[in-house]
């Protein structure tokens, strides 16, 4: 039976507790949710930061509080902070998230239309962030929202701003990015360097179908309240752990077993201390 890296995206930058009361926003809630997701089978927790009012933030003090809270509640799990933060958060502030020194952090290679907003990732600052993550020993996860974003990501590899093995997420279903289309996923996977670790992120109603297809193709998978607030039509998810458990069930039906944290550390060449960079 092959292994699969399961990631739980706990919060995201858009949904609120009005959308789903189970959404964790405070450092303490995020830590409890991370523990539940880990116990359900996730080796990595992907975290967006929220301020005291539940709004997206990139404040370094909040980042450090979240990393510390997760480390206390669940020291085994691998922490991946999002440098995407939120559409209204200045990029210069987003860059500071790396200073919390998580084991992993996201890197978005391109600016794009995101729904009715603009997701800014200026080329010069983005490269500066990539260089700083490399200096700190933080493993970047390339967030690929459209086909051209992969070309930019591979350019970073050739420039020496990324190191193999790459960790890549294909985000499908965001308006302004690529649709949730298996043919596009197949095209993108075919253009990855050998040995790349990849996962598909299906947004909203595309979550379960696209993650299932990705699993069947040999990729890894992500779920959580950032990606979908619903367990099924008309039935909101009650926790991130519930969504992770569902995804683990799909993986096992495909004869794939969730990777342990130790296995993920080896596969992705992460620091020996899972939560933090070296």
Tell me the CATH topology.
TIM Barrel
Strands side by side in the biggest sheet: 2-3-4-5-8-9-10-11
Helix content: 25-40%
The main β sheet shows up as:
8 strands, parallel, barrel
Report what the structure shows:
The chain has 278 residues and is α/β, with parallel strands linked by helices. It is built from 9 helices and 14 strands. It has one domain (2-268): Alpha-Beta Barrel (TIM Barrel), CATH 3.20.20. It has helices at residues 27-40, 60-73, 91-95, 123-136, 147-158, 182-190, 207-216, 240-253, 261-268, and strands at residues 2-4, 6-9, 44-47, 78-81, 104-107, 112-114, 117-119, 139-144, 167-172, 197-202, 220-223, 230-232, 235-236, 256-258. The strands form 4 sheets. Strands 2-3-4-5-8-9-10-11 form an 8-stranded parallel beta barrel, surrounded by 8 helices. A hairpin with a 2-residue loop joins strand 12 and strand 13. The longest helix has 14 residues, at 27-40. It starts with a strand and ends in a 10-residue tail after the last helix.
């Amino acid at each position: 039976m092959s292994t699969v890296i399961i990631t739980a995206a706990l919060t995201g930058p858009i949904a609120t507790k009005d959308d789903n009361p189970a959404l964790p926003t405070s450092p303490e809630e995020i830590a409890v949710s991370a523990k539940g997701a880990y116990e359900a089978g996730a080796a990595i927790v992907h975290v967006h930061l929220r301020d005291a009012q539940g709004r997206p933030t990139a404040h370094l003090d909040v980042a450090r509080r979240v990393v510390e809270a997760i480390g206390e509640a669940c020291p085994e799990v691998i922490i991946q902070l999002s440098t995407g933060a939120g559409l209204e958060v200045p990029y210069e502030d987003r860059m500071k998230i790396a200073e919390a020194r998580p084991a992993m952090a996201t890197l978005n290679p391109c600016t794009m239309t995101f729904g009715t907003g603009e997701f800014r990732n200026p080329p010069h600052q983005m490269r500066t962030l990539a260089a700083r993550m490399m200096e700190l020993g933080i493993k970047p996860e390339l967030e690929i929202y459209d086909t051209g974003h992969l070309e930019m990501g591979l350019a970073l590899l050739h420039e020496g701003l990324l190191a193999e093995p790459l960790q890549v997420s294909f985000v499908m279903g965001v308006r302004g990015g690529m649709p949730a289309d298996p043919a596009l996923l197949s095209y993108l996977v075919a253009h990855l360097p050998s040995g790349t670790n990849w996962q598909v992120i299906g947004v909203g109603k595309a979550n379960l179908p696209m993650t299932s297809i990705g699993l069947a193709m040999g990729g890894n998978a992500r779920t959580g309240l950032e990606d979908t607030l619903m367990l099924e039509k008309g039935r909101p998810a009650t926790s991130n752990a519930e969504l992770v458990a569902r995804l683990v069930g799909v993986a096992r039906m495909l004869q794939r077993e969730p990777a342990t944290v130790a296995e993920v550390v080896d596969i992705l060449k992460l620091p020996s201390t899972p939560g933090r960079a070296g």
